[in-house]
Every structure is written in structure tokens, then in C-alpha cells.
Amino acid sequence: MLRYAQKREIKNTMLVQGDALALPLRESSIDVVVSGFALRNFSSIQPVFGEIYRILESNGRLGLLEIDKPTNTFLKVSHSIYFTKIVPFIGGVLSDRKAYQYLPDSEKYLPTEIELFNMLEQSGFSEIKKKRLFGGVAQIVTALKR
Fold first, then answer.
1. Domains, in order of start, for the chain
2. How many other CB atoms sit within 10 Å of the CB of residue 43?
3. Integer Cα distance of 92 and 97 in angstroms
4. Global pTM?
5. Tens digits of residue pLDDT in 36-57
6. FRET label pair with 5: which of 14, 53, 76, 78, CA 20 to 30 Å apart?
């Protein structure tokens, strides 16, 4: 992803690769942190939020895009079939079969909404908000460092 972003030559952007628990960035040096579908890849999410809080400047924002679970029964069943059967099949045909077989199981690692909000609050974040997307198939969670 970094090589692709580098080719785009995005102005005023710093591309950094590092360990999410020890980012090679100064304290209070970043104004925005965004993450897309990454939480499932951490064995412990709380320390990651602590590290993000450390590097964010005062009034810095965090934005998380993650999968979610629909509350509508029809969408819940449809999404379950799609996410556990169709996506792994298509992903396995077009790409890495093991990665796409792991995907449905990775959903189990995500905290509930209450747990996620509590983790963010415990890390020091405030103004935590959630917006459901596509009938609850995905979510955007935002938070502020005061």
C-alpha cells in the first residue's frame, strides 16, 4: 500500500511503516489517524488505541472504518451468507485463498460497540460517535483527543 501511495505523489503527506504498538512518530505530532478494516488484525486492541492517542495532537481525530453486524433480520442473514460463503469463494479464486478464509472468522475478534467505546474512552478519547453504513454492514467510528 505504501508503494502504491508513493506512486500517487500525494502532497503534504508523510508515509510511514511501523509497528502499531510503537509507531516511529513523536508524541502529539499527527492531527488525523484513519484506519480501514485493521482492528481485526490486532490480538489486543486497547494498546493500539493508546499508541494512537500518544501520537495525536490535542484536538486530533481518529476515524475507524470497520465491519459491523446488521440489525435487520433480512440483512443479517443475507450479509452472513455473503460474508461467510461468497466473499471467501470469490477471494480464493481471485487472490489468496487462506486470507479470504480467515476473513469471516476475523469478525469474531472485533469488540462490541459498547466494548469499543469503552476502550476508546479508557485511552482518553472523547466525542466518540458511530455511523452505520449500508444497513449496518459497516461502520465509521470517530473520536477526538482532547
1. 26-145 (3.40.50.150)
2. 7
3. 4
4. 0.84
5. 999 988 989 999 999 999 999 9
6. 53
